[in-house]
Design a protein that fits this description.
The protein is built from 9 helices and 5 strands. It has 216 residues and is an alpha/beta fold. It has one domain: Rossmann fold (3-Layer(aba) Sandwich). A 5-stranded parallel β-sheet has the order 2-3-1-4-5, with helices on both faces.
Length: 216
């Protein structure tokens, strides 16, 4: 049986990593073979790209930034994601190309058509089974991120940038946007407020619907 690709998306401080880890444990209890990955990173070259992209002192032009994300993604698809899916595993990925659409198109203002073309090249046509889009007000998310420690290069961007990113993510939950972006698969907005346990239950309902075999 082919594997499943489940994506976690959202702005800074939305709790993606926490919820991905909790879902992995829950899927494991149901007997699923799970692989947890993150973008950028997950491969030797991807980890080097991640360190560069998040380095607070790095000065990276918008197009260069987008292409670095794509380069990391291309390596991840070939070295990790496709082999795991071929083995029938459930791949849980912390960020994917919706983040590129939000941060580099919505936030940086790059042309969507060019970014979509580059993304298709990087992914080789892989479409997620479902994307869990964790939603949270910008100010709450940035406050959460600040508690984690020193801000990385993306977190350090001005508030207006994060507002644009948040607005882009909100648009992705609209059926009309999804219909026009078939490469994204199904996207479900999940409120990220409340307790960690409450959010976990919301996430589980979404994933169990998209991947009913995990309940067996």
């Amino acid at each position: 049986m082919a594997g499943r690709l489940v994506i976690f998306e959202g702005g800074e401080g939305a709790g993606k990593t926490t919820q991905l880890e909790r879902l992995a444990l829950r899927l494991g209890r149901h007997g699923a073979q799970v692989r947890m990955l993150r973008e950028p990173g997950g491969t030797p070259i991807g980890d080097e790209i991640r360190a560069l992209l998040l380095r607070p002192s790095a000065q990276i032009p918008a197009r260069t930034e987008a292409l670095l994300f794509m380069a990391s993604r291309a390596a991840l698809m070939v070295e990790q994601v496709r082999p795991a899916l071929d083995r029938g595993e459930i791949v849980l990925l912390d960020r994917f190309f919706l983040s590129t659409y939000a941060y580099q198109v919505g936030g940086r203002g790059l042309p969507e058509s060019e970014v979509r073309g580059a993304n298709a090249f990087a992914t080789g046509g892989i479409v997620p089974d479902v994307t869990v889009l964790l939603t949270l007000p910008v100010e709450v998310g940035l406050a959460r991120a600040a508690h984690r420690g020193a801000a990385d290069r993306m977190e350090q961007a001005e508030r207006a940038f994060h507002d644009r990113v948040n607005a882009a993510f909100a648009s992705f939950a609209e059926p009309s946007w999804q219909a026009a972006h078939a490469e994204c698969g199904r996207i479900v907005a999940v409120p990220a407020d409340g307790s960690v346990e409450a959010v976990e239950e919301r996430v589980w309902r979404v994933v169990a619907t998209a991947c009913p075999e995990v309940q067996g």
